[in-house]
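One such shown below:

_____
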Amino acid sequence: MATPFQVRPVTEGELPAFEYVDQHAFHGRPDTERSRSNWHARLELDRTLGAFDGSTLAGVTGVYTFQMRVPGTMAAVAGVSMVAVLPSHRRRGVLSSLMRRQLGDIAERGEAVAALFASETPIYGRYGYGRASWQLTLNLARGHGALAAGVPTDPGLRVRIAEPRSAHAEMGKVFELALTERPGLYARTEPWWDRLTHEPDSDADSPMRCVLVEDDAGPRGYALFTSEGRWEWEDGSFLPAGVLDTHEAIATDPAAAVALWGNVLGRDLITTFRLHMMPVDDPLLDLLADSRQGRPRLSDGRWTW
């Protein structure tokens, strides 16, 4: 099918226009220099695509080259991202032009799988993608993170607070073990760890926190989270109303998971714990004294082609 748009990789000089399209489509703000530098470190310029309406960059997409765990093996996977169309050019075939070209390029490279997280679920089925996994969100009030009696413990385990950007190697050991058995995880390079553990972009952003669970042999679990101290005034008193959001939590065994969640969900002055993008079979559901109090919510995870 003929398209009125020229579709080709963007040049380095066109990256500001690429960002501009992404910001308008996703209602984002301009990147900080740190964020932009990290993006450039991860970006594969030859795997970007832009759809041009004359001299106007109307739509963009890109691919990150990954090794991802699929059932039984590691496979070369095209990590599709940065899919955006200018609001002025919607419903004119821009996205279809980009998808046709991108999927053709992926097939030519011999990658059997393309994977993405869908911004809206109706979009990608039109291009041959299907939901490949589900993910779990838990929302726990203070006290509802209590663990059940008799959960496995290990007296040799200890919890240590670490600076996230200094703990990449230690977290990486845990992550590599999870990578051997958890489909959907992908091998991480240093720029991807850096993106996950970045410092706040502004004074309004909460810093990333890290706790490690370890024994004398090394790390057996970690959690990355942000938290915000909040207070409410009620009946003449200040009451804590803090919120904690987990960004990643991985443990290598049940006892490590008990130590990890016991620390994270027992934080003082937090009244809401929001646990995001968890596997549907995460052991926490079996460790909680009352799993219903987690208010588990299921949503689509990765989509693959």
User: Anything to note?
Assistant: Helices lie at 15-26, 33-42, 94-108, 168-179, 190-196, 254-264, 284-287. DSSP finds seven helices and 16 strands in the chain. The first strand starts at residue 6 and ends at 8. The longest helix spans residues 94-108.
